[in-house]
Amino acid sequence: xxxxxxxxxxxxxxxxxxxxxxxxxxxxxxxxxxxxxxxxxxxxxxxxxxxxxxxxxxxxxxxxxxxxxxxxxxxxxxxxxxxxxxxxxxxxxxxxxxxxxxxxxxxxxxxxxxxxxxxxxxxxxxxxxxxxxxxxxxxxxxxxxxxxxxxxxxxxxxxxxxxxxxxxxxxxxxxxxxxxxxxxxxxxxxxxxxxxxxxxxxxxxxxxxxxxxxxxxxxxxxxxxxxxxxxxxxxxxxxxxxxxxxxxxxxxxxxxxxxxxxxxxxxxxxxxxxxxxxxxxxxxxxxxxxxxxxxxxxxxxxxxxxxxxxxxxxxxxxxxxxxxxxxxxxxxxxxxxxxxxxxxxxxxxxxxxxxxxxxxxxxxxxxxxxxxxxxxxxxxxxxxxxxxxxxxxxxxxxxxxxxxxxxx
Length: 408
Ligand SMILES: [Zn+2]
Hints:
eight-stranded parallel β-sheet; 16 strands; 17% strand; globular
Protein backbone atom coordinates (compact mmCIF):
# COMPACT_ATOMS: atom_id res chain seq x y z
CA UNK A 1 0.00 0.00 0.00
CA UNK A 2 1.44 3.41 -0.93
CA UNK A 3 2.05 6.14 1.59
CA UNK A 4 -1.13 7.99 2.42
CA UNK A 5 -2.23 10.63 4.85
CA UNK A 6 -5.86 11.07 5.76
CA UNK A 7 -7.26 13.72 8.06
CA UNK A 8 -10.32 12.31 9.78
CA UNK A 9 -11.27 15.00 12.28
CA UNK A 10 -10.33 18.57 13.03
CA UNK A 11 -10.84 20.75 16.08
CA UNK A 12 -9.92 24.34 15.36
CA UNK A 13 -6.37 24.04 14.05
CA UNK A 14 -5.75 20.54 15.45
CA UNK A 15 -6.09 17.53 13.18
CA UNK A 16 -6.55 13.83 13.92
CA UNK A 17 -5.74 11.47 11.12
CA UNK A 18 -3.91 8.46 9.89
CA UNK A 19 -0.62 7.87 8.13
CA UNK A 20 -0.52 4.68 6.08
CA UNK A 21 2.94 3.23 5.51
CA UNK A 22 4.26 -0.06 4.18
CA UNK A 23 4.71 -1.13 7.81
CA UNK A 24 1.36 -0.23 9.23
CA UNK A 25 -0.87 2.66 10.08
CA UNK A 26 -0.04 5.47 12.44
CA UNK A 27 -2.69 7.47 14.23
CA UNK A 28 -1.86 11.17 14.29
CA UNK A 29 -0.97 13.42 15.95
CA UNK A 30 1.75 11.04 17.04
CA UNK A 31 4.73 11.16 19.35
CA UNK A 32 7.60 9.05 18.01
CA UNK A 33 9.97 7.56 20.62
CA UNK A 34 13.64 7.79 19.68
CA UNK A 35 15.55 4.57 19.08
CA UNK A 36 18.91 6.06 18.22
CA UNK A 37 20.92 2.89 17.62
CA UNK A 38 18.04 0.64 16.48
CA UNK A 39 17.03 0.40 20.12
CA UNK A 40 14.79 2.43 22.39
CA UNK A 41 17.22 2.34 25.26
CA UNK A 42 16.22 -0.13 28.01
CA UNK A 43 12.97 -1.37 26.41
CA UNK A 44 12.64 -4.49 24.25
CA UNK A 45 10.59 -4.44 21.08
CA UNK A 46 7.76 -6.66 22.35
CA UNK A 47 7.18 -4.21 25.19
CA UNK A 48 7.20 -1.30 22.73
CA UNK A 49 4.50 -3.14 20.78
CA UNK A 50 2.47 -3.71 23.94
CA UNK A 51 2.69 0.01 24.68
CA UNK A 52 1.00 0.64 21.34
CA UNK A 53 3.93 2.37 19.66
CA UNK A 54 3.20 2.56 15.93
CA UNK A 55 6.36 4.33 14.75
CA UNK A 56 9.92 4.69 16.04
CA UNK A 57 12.69 7.08 15.06
CA UNK A 58 16.23 5.98 14.25
CA UNK A 59 19.30 8.22 13.86
CA UNK A 60 21.13 7.84 10.56
CA UNK A 61 24.38 9.35 11.86
CA UNK A 62 24.67 6.83 14.69
CA UNK A 63 23.60 3.83 12.62
CA UNK A 64 25.98 4.81 9.83
CA UNK A 65 28.86 4.69 12.32
CA UNK A 66 27.59 1.58 14.12
CA UNK A 67 26.88 -1.06 12.87
CA UNK A 68 27.14 0.55 9.40
CA UNK A 69 24.50 0.99 6.74
CA UNK A 70 25.64 -1.97 4.66
CA UNK A 71 25.35 -4.33 7.60
CA UNK A 72 21.81 -3.17 8.35
CA UNK A 73 20.86 -3.33 4.66
CA UNK A 74 22.08 -6.92 4.31
CA UNK A 75 20.08 -7.92 7.37
CA UNK A 76 16.82 -6.68 5.88
CA UNK A 77 17.04 -3.00 6.77
CA UNK A 78 16.15 -1.66 10.19
CA UNK A 79 12.86 -3.57 10.30
CA UNK A 80 14.56 -6.92 9.85
CA UNK A 81 17.68 -6.07 11.81
CA UNK A 82 15.91 -4.91 14.96
CA UNK A 83 12.85 -7.13 14.49
CA UNK A 84 10.42 -4.26 14.43
CA UNK A 85 7.50 -4.86 12.07
CA UNK A 86 5.92 -1.45 12.50
CA UNK A 87 6.83 1.89 10.95
CA UNK A 88 10.20 3.62 11.33
CA UNK A 89 11.39 7.14 10.49
CA UNK A 90 15.05 8.07 10.13
CA UNK A 91 16.51 11.55 10.29
CA UNK A 92 19.02 12.54 7.62
CA UNK A 93 21.99 12.89 9.92
CA UNK A 94 22.07 16.64 9.31
CA UNK A 95 21.07 17.62 12.81
CA UNK A 96 23.38 15.10 14.45
CA UNK A 97 26.32 16.29 12.38
CA UNK A 98 25.37 19.88 13.17
CA UNK A 99 25.59 18.98 16.86
CA UNK A 100 29.23 17.99 16.46
CA UNK A 101 30.22 21.68 16.29
CA UNK A 102 34.01 21.73 16.21
CA UNK A 103 34.17 18.41 14.40
CA UNK A 104 32.52 19.45 11.13
CA UNK A 105 33.13 21.47 7.98
CA UNK A 106 30.25 22.50 5.74
CA UNK A 107 30.62 23.15 2.00
CA UNK A 108 28.19 23.25 -0.92
CA UNK A 109 28.91 19.58 -1.53
CA UNK A 110 28.09 18.46 1.99
CA UNK A 111 29.51 18.11 5.46
CA UNK A 112 32.85 16.62 6.46
CA UNK A 113 32.76 15.50 10.06
CA UNK A 114 34.70 13.49 12.56
CA UNK A 115 33.16 10.52 14.29
CA UNK A 116 32.49 11.12 17.97
CA UNK A 117 33.55 7.50 18.50
CA UNK A 118 37.06 7.37 17.11
CA UNK A 119 37.72 10.69 15.37
CA UNK A 120 37.59 9.08 11.90
CA UNK A 121 36.76 11.42 9.02
CA UNK A 122 33.45 11.00 7.18
CA UNK A 123 31.40 12.90 4.64
CA UNK A 124 27.65 13.32 4.29
CA UNK A 125 26.14 14.87 1.18
CA UNK A 126 22.48 15.01 0.20
CA UNK A 127 23.18 12.01 -2.02
CA UNK A 128 25.06 9.90 0.53
CA UNK A 129 22.55 10.77 3.28
CA UNK A 130 19.78 9.52 0.99
CA UNK A 131 21.79 6.41 0.14
CA UNK A 132 22.28 5.72 3.83
CA UNK A 133 18.59 6.18 4.58
CA UNK A 134 17.53 4.00 1.66
CA UNK A 135 19.92 1.32 2.93
CA UNK A 136 18.52 1.57 6.45
CA UNK A 137 15.05 1.22 4.94
CA UNK A 138 12.85 3.32 7.22
CA UNK A 139 9.33 4.05 5.99
CA UNK A 140 9.79 7.81 6.22
CA UNK A 141 13.15 9.43 5.53
CA UNK A 142 14.27 13.04 5.67
CA UNK A 143 15.96 15.37 3.20
CA UNK A 144 19.52 16.37 4.09
CA UNK A 145 19.43 19.88 5.53
CA UNK A 146 21.64 22.34 7.32
CA UNK A 147 20.36 23.14 10.76
CA UNK A 148 20.99 26.86 11.21
CA UNK A 149 22.68 27.63 14.50
CA UNK A 150 21.19 29.97 17.10
CA UNK A 151 21.70 32.84 17.21
CA UNK A 152 22.23 33.62 13.52
CA UNK A 153 21.81 36.96 11.76
CA UNK A 154 19.45 37.27 8.81
CA UNK A 155 22.14 36.98 6.14
CA UNK A 156 23.48 33.83 7.72
CA UNK A 157 19.99 32.33 8.17
CA UNK A 158 19.15 33.15 4.55
CA UNK A 159 22.35 31.65 3.15
CA UNK A 160 21.79 28.52 5.21
CA UNK A 161 18.16 28.31 4.06
CA UNK A 162 19.21 28.65 0.42
CA UNK A 163 21.68 25.80 0.78
CA UNK A 164 19.07 23.62 2.48
CA UNK A 165 16.78 24.28 -0.51
CA UNK A 166 19.51 23.25 -2.96
CA UNK A 167 20.21 20.18 -0.83
CA UNK A 168 16.47 19.38 -0.78
CA UNK A 169 16.44 19.29 -4.58
CA UNK A 170 19.52 17.05 -4.63
CA UNK A 171 17.98 14.81 -1.94
CA UNK A 172 14.79 14.40 -3.94
CA UNK A 173 16.60 13.76 -7.21
CA UNK A 174 18.76 11.05 -5.67
CA UNK A 175 15.79 9.51 -3.87
CA UNK A 176 13.67 9.39 -7.03
CA UNK A 177 16.47 7.62 -8.87
CA UNK A 178 17.24 5.08 -6.14
CA UNK A 179 14.08 4.55 -4.11
CA UNK A 180 13.56 1.01 -5.38
CA UNK A 181 16.80 -0.07 -3.68
CA UNK A 182 15.06 -0.17 -0.31
CA UNK A 183 15.91 -3.49 1.41
CA UNK A 184 12.42 -4.55 2.35
CA UNK A 185 11.61 -8.23 2.49
CA UNK A 186 10.11 -10.33 -0.23
CA UNK A 187 6.77 -12.08 0.15
CA UNK A 188 8.57 -14.93 1.93
CA UNK A 189 9.96 -12.52 4.44
CA UNK A 190 13.60 -12.93 3.55
CA UNK A 191 15.64 -9.83 2.91
CA UNK A 192 16.23 -8.86 -0.70
CA UNK A 193 19.84 -8.50 -1.75
CA UNK A 194 20.39 -5.08 -3.17
CA UNK A 195 23.15 -2.85 -4.34
CA UNK A 196 25.33 -0.67 -2.21
CA UNK A 197 26.53 1.20 -5.30
CA UNK A 198 24.81 4.19 -3.80
CA UNK A 199 27.83 4.70 -1.62
CA UNK A 200 30.26 5.02 -4.50
CA UNK A 201 29.84 8.74 -4.70
CA UNK A 202 29.78 11.29 -2.01
CA UNK A 203 31.85 9.42 0.54
CA UNK A 204 35.44 10.59 0.45
CA UNK A 205 36.73 8.58 3.33
CA UNK A 206 35.43 5.07 3.74
CA UNK A 207 36.06 3.63 7.16
CA UNK A 208 36.18 -0.08 7.77
CA UNK A 209 33.88 0.25 10.73
CA UNK A 210 31.32 2.27 8.83
CA UNK A 211 30.45 -0.89 6.93
CA UNK A 212 30.45 0.82 3.56
CA UNK A 213 31.53 -1.08 0.48
CA UNK A 214 33.80 1.08 -1.65
CA UNK A 215 33.47 -1.27 -4.62
CA UNK A 216 29.69 -1.43 -4.76
CA UNK A 217 28.20 -3.55 -7.50
CA UNK A 218 25.42 -2.51 -9.88
CA UNK A 219 21.97 -2.70 -8.41
CA UNK A 220 19.89 -5.84 -8.47
CA UNK A 221 16.88 -5.87 -10.73
CA UNK A 222 13.77 -4.56 -9.06
CA UNK A 223 10.87 -7.03 -9.08
CA UNK A 224 8.04 -5.65 -11.15
CA UNK A 225 5.58 -6.34 -8.33
CA UNK A 226 7.62 -4.20 -5.95
CA UNK A 227 5.60 -1.06 -5.53
CA UNK A 228 6.23 -0.03 -1.96
CA UNK A 229 8.81 2.63 -1.46
CA UNK A 230 9.87 4.96 1.29
CA UNK A 231 8.50 8.49 1.65
CA UNK A 232 10.92 11.40 1.61
CA UNK A 233 9.93 14.47 3.64
CA UNK A 234 11.26 17.98 3.06
CA UNK A 235 12.50 20.17 5.91
CA UNK A 236 11.70 23.86 6.39
CA UNK A 237 14.54 25.98 7.78
CA UNK A 238 15.06 29.76 7.97
CA UNK A 239 16.33 30.28 11.48
CA UNK A 240 14.10 32.38 13.73
CA UNK A 241 13.15 34.78 10.92
CA UNK A 242 9.44 34.40 10.17
CA UNK A 243 9.73 35.79 6.64
CA UNK A 244 12.52 33.33 5.82
CA UNK A 245 10.42 30.55 7.29
CA UNK A 246 7.59 31.49 4.92
CA UNK A 247 9.95 31.55 1.95
CA UNK A 248 11.56 28.25 2.97
CA UNK A 249 8.13 26.63 3.32
CA UNK A 250 6.88 27.86 -0.05
CA UNK A 251 10.02 26.90 -1.95
CA UNK A 252 10.24 23.49 -0.26
CA UNK A 253 6.61 22.88 -1.24
CA UNK A 254 7.51 23.88 -4.81
CA UNK A 255 10.10 21.08 -4.86
CA UNK A 256 7.31 18.76 -3.75
CA UNK A 257 7.31 16.23 -0.92
CA UNK A 258 4.61 13.97 0.61
CA UNK A 259 5.25 15.54 4.03
CA UNK A 260 7.01 18.54 5.55
CA UNK A 261 9.09 18.94 8.68
CA UNK A 262 9.89 22.04 10.65
CA UNK A 263 13.58 21.82 11.47
CA UNK A 264 16.14 24.07 13.09
CA UNK A 265 14.31 24.49 16.38
CA UNK A 266 15.21 23.42 19.93
CA UNK A 267 18.74 24.70 19.20
CA UNK A 268 18.99 26.92 22.27
CA UNK A 269 16.32 29.51 21.52
CA UNK A 270 13.77 30.49 24.19
CA UNK A 271 10.63 28.35 24.21
CA UNK A 272 8.26 31.20 23.39
CA UNK A 273 10.32 31.85 20.23
CA UNK A 274 10.10 28.16 19.29
CA UNK A 275 6.34 28.36 19.55
CA UNK A 276 6.18 31.58 17.54
CA UNK A 277 8.25 30.12 14.70
CA UNK A 278 6.24 26.88 14.70
CA UNK A 279 2.94 28.72 14.57
CA UNK A 280 4.09 31.01 11.77
CA UNK A 281 5.56 28.14 9.74
CA UNK A 282 2.46 25.96 10.06
CA UNK A 283 0.43 28.69 8.35
CA UNK A 284 2.44 28.10 5.16
CA UNK A 285 2.34 24.30 5.08
CA UNK A 286 -0.27 22.45 2.99
CA UNK A 287 -3.27 21.28 5.02
CA UNK A 288 -3.43 17.89 3.31
CA UNK A 289 0.15 16.80 4.04
CA UNK A 290 1.64 15.57 7.33
CA UNK A 291 3.53 18.17 9.36
CA UNK A 292 6.43 16.97 11.46
CA UNK A 293 7.93 19.14 14.19
CA UNK A 294 11.40 17.79 14.89
CA UNK A 295 12.88 17.50 18.35
CA UNK A 296 10.09 18.50 20.75
CA UNK A 297 9.19 18.28 23.54
CA UNK A 298 7.77 18.17 27.04
CA UNK A 299 4.33 16.65 27.70
CA UNK A 300 2.89 20.17 27.77
CA UNK A 301 4.58 21.06 24.49
CA UNK A 302 3.41 18.02 22.55
CA UNK A 303 -0.15 18.86 23.57
CA UNK A 304 0.31 22.50 22.60
CA UNK A 305 1.87 21.73 19.23
CA UNK A 306 -0.88 19.22 18.46
CA UNK A 307 -3.35 21.99 19.18
CA UNK A 308 -1.56 24.19 16.64
CA UNK A 309 -1.87 21.53 13.93
CA UNK A 310 1.36 19.50 14.16
CA UNK A 311 0.90 15.83 13.22
CA UNK A 312 4.22 14.24 14.17
CA UNK A 313 6.80 14.89 16.90
CA UNK A 314 9.84 13.20 18.36
CA UNK A 315 12.13 13.85 21.30
CA UNK A 316 14.64 12.01 23.44
CA UNK A 317 13.17 13.66 26.53
CA UNK A 318 10.89 10.89 27.88
CA UNK A 319 13.51 8.17 27.46
CA UNK A 320 16.57 10.21 28.47
CA UNK A 321 14.81 11.79 31.46
CA UNK A 322 13.67 8.34 32.58
CA UNK A 323 17.24 7.10 32.70
CA UNK A 324 18.05 10.05 34.92
CA UNK A 325 15.16 9.36 37.27
CA UNK A 326 12.91 12.17 36.02
CA UNK A 327 9.40 10.86 35.58
CA UNK A 328 6.38 12.59 34.04
CA UNK A 329 3.10 11.99 35.81
CA UNK A 330 -0.46 13.34 35.81
CA UNK A 331 0.49 15.13 39.04
CA UNK A 332 3.63 16.71 37.65
CA UNK A 333 7.27 15.74 37.50
CA UNK A 334 8.70 13.24 39.97
CA UNK A 335 12.42 13.01 40.66
CA UNK A 336 12.40 9.45 41.92
CA UNK A 337 15.88 9.70 43.39
CA UNK A 338 14.63 11.90 46.23
CA UNK A 339 14.75 10.45 49.74
CA UNK A 340 11.13 11.51 50.31
CA UNK A 341 10.02 8.50 48.24
CA UNK A 342 12.05 5.94 50.23
CA UNK A 343 9.02 4.82 52.27
CA UNK A 344 6.30 5.77 49.76
CA UNK A 345 4.06 2.75 49.13
CA UNK A 346 1.92 4.51 46.55
CA UNK A 347 2.18 4.05 42.77
CA UNK A 348 4.33 6.42 40.76
CA UNK A 349 1.23 7.89 39.12
CA UNK A 350 -2.18 6.89 40.55
CA UNK A 351 -3.81 7.88 37.25
CA UNK A 352 -1.50 5.83 35.03
CA UNK A 353 -2.55 2.39 33.84
CA UNK A 354 0.93 1.30 32.77
CA UNK A 355 2.43 -1.95 33.98
CA UNK A 356 4.90 -0.09 36.19
CA UNK A 357 2.32 1.99 38.02
CA UNK A 358 0.04 -1.03 38.35
CA UNK A 359 2.67 -3.16 40.02
CA UNK A 360 5.42 -1.23 41.79
CA UNK A 361 5.65 1.38 44.53
CA UNK A 362 7.49 4.66 44.49
CA UNK A 363 9.66 3.24 47.29
CA UNK A 364 10.73 0.32 45.09
CA UNK A 365 11.42 2.53 42.07
CA UNK A 366 13.42 4.88 44.29
CA UNK A 367 15.39 1.93 45.68
CA UNK A 368 16.19 0.62 42.17
CA UNK A 369 17.39 4.04 41.07
CA UNK A 370 19.45 4.68 44.20
CA UNK A 371 21.03 1.23 43.83
CA UNK A 372 21.82 1.85 40.17
CA UNK A 373 19.90 -1.25 39.12
CA UNK A 374 19.40 -1.74 35.38
CA UNK A 375 15.72 -2.41 36.10
CA UNK A 376 15.34 1.22 37.17
CA UNK A 377 16.07 2.35 33.62
CA UNK A 378 13.70 -0.25 32.18
CA UNK A 379 10.75 0.58 34.42
CA UNK A 380 11.28 4.34 34.35
CA UNK A 381 11.42 4.35 30.55
CA UNK A 382 8.31 2.19 30.22
CA UNK A 383 6.37 4.57 32.44
CA UNK A 384 7.53 7.75 30.68
CA UNK A 385 6.75 6.31 27.26
CA UNK A 386 3.33 5.19 28.52
CA UNK A 387 2.68 8.67 29.82
CA UNK A 388 3.57 10.27 26.49
CA UNK A 389 1.53 7.75 24.51
CA UNK A 390 -1.47 8.15 26.81
CA UNK A 391 -1.16 11.91 26.45
CA UNK A 392 -1.32 11.62 22.67
CA UNK A 393 -4.25 9.20 22.86
CA UNK A 394 -6.15 11.77 24.89
CA UNK A 395 -5.19 14.49 22.44
CA UNK A 396 -6.46 12.44 19.49
CA UNK A 397 -9.62 11.57 21.40
CA UNK A 398 -10.24 15.24 22.18
CA UNK A 399 -9.81 16.21 18.53
CA UNK A 400 -12.18 13.46 17.43
CA UNK A 401 -14.78 14.53 19.94
CA UNK A 402 -14.32 18.08 18.71
CA UNK A 403 -15.16 19.48 22.08
CA UNK A 404 -13.37 21.41 24.75
CA UNK A 405 -11.38 19.27 27.13
CA UNK A 406 -8.57 19.76 29.55
CA UNK A 407 -6.21 19.46 26.60
CA UNK A 408 -7.79 22.06 24.39
ZN1 LIG B 1 2.86 4.54 34.67
